[in-house]
Amino acid sequence: MKVFALKVFCQLWPCYSRESCRFPSGTGVIRIAHSLDLEASPQLTVTCLLVVAYDPLHKVSATASVTVTVLDVNDIPPYCIPSLIVGTVPETTPIGYELASVNCADKDITSTSLTYHIVPDNSSIGKFSISIAGGSLKAL
């Protein structure tokens, strides 16, 4: 049995796929060429690549379809607008009176709903409450 040394070349098709992937010749390995940030490029969620392998000596080729699904990672911390609320409260404020509303968001594509909690100190324990789902701050 004879074994022939074939030189097979591979490329990604269409050419625009090279922006997000690279295919070093002769390795058969598709590698990421740059960061896949879904918040910056939501169209990267599913990318279909067509790989063409060809042997120029024997003028034959084969193709393979590769589907890449990019999964979002919770990599952006939530933020609140405004990030600081300063106010005064008269001592006659009725219990349950809404003092402020905290509005926070998460820029991750697959972000889940945020929950709110007060981190109490010695002077605020038992004096304030916050709505876990809505961020409404009330006097107790």
From TrEMBL:
Source species taxonomy: Eukaryota, Metazoa, Chordata, Craniata, Vertebrata
Q: Which organism is it from?
A: Megalops atlanticus
Q: Where in the cell is it found?
A: Membrane
Looking at the keywords, is Iron present?
no
For this protein, the record's PANTHER family field holds: DESMOGLEIN FAMILY MEMBER, NEURAL-CADHERIN
Tell me the GO molecular function terms: calcium ion binding
- Which first-to-last residue range defines the signal peptide? none
Q: What is this protein called?
A: Cadherin domain-containing protein
Q: Which GO terms describe its cellular component?
A: cell-cell junction; membrane
The source's superkingdom equals Eukaryota
Q: Which UniProt keywords apply?
A: Calcium, Cell adhesion, Membrane, Repeat, Transmembrane, Transmembrane helix
GO BP annotations of the record are:
homophilic cell adhesion via plasma membrane adhesion molecules
Give start and end of each Cadherin domain: 27-80
* Keyword Calcium belongs to the record: yes
CDD domains in the cross-refs = Cadherin_repeat (cd11304)
